[in-house]
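Slide 14.
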Amino acid sequence: MAALCGMVLAWAAEPAAAQGKLEAQYEASLSGIPVGKGAWNIEIGDDVFAAAASGGTSGLLKSFAGGSGTGASQGRVVNGALVATGYQASTTTSKKTEEIRITLDKGNVKDFAIVPEPPVDPDRIVVTDAHRRGVWDPMTASLVRVSGTGDVLSADACHGSAAVFDGRMRYELKLDFKRMETVKAEKGYKGPVVVCSLFFVPVAGYIPDRPVIKYLAAQRNIEVAFAPIAGTRILVPFWLKVPTPLGPAMLEATSFITSAQPPRVAKTQ
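Slide 15: predicted structure.
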């Protein structure tokens, strides 16, 4: 679920339209059993943006497979478009801690590192320099921008595809419109969401025979529901549903508090 949370989508850079803020709490479950909790904070200003998430296992899962992680991205808002300049992620389990850092320039990876450096696997498809051009980092890729001036929650939000590089793997993500729904968080947002089908297409940096890759690439029933950040034309995942051999896995917002932020007033003498 942590990996899929970072895979959720971004399309061609569209105007952000305004400034907004989101403070959200999420709960992950497997077959209805809670297995994790997390938080996601996003701030979009008139010239910069920042997003950060953190989470970890909980309940029964924590007793035998404890783990936690953080992720963050930041960048500039250029002519209303979100342009990431950096991404950082860290995961910790009982066996190891791993950190990933990516530096970007206009969608191209300038530098990246995984610490500690993973061993070379001859079965892994090599990621080339070409694979690291015209990409999104996983965190910025979770923000869907809807163009135009019409309703931000419409079928148009589920059109397009995105190229993502997470420091190890390069993959494509595609959306297709499914339906409209109404949701109600325990705290905060209550209203419509647009539900899209989500398709995962591995490109490079993966091991073809790995079962989880084969399973995700073959899935046609992954769904994600998007809700808006107030004051912007940017949508954020409200819930994500993934079928698994052990039952449905779900990541859902329990608290989704969003507010529009007034434009910054330039200082004058």
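Speaker note: The longest strand covers residues 170-184.
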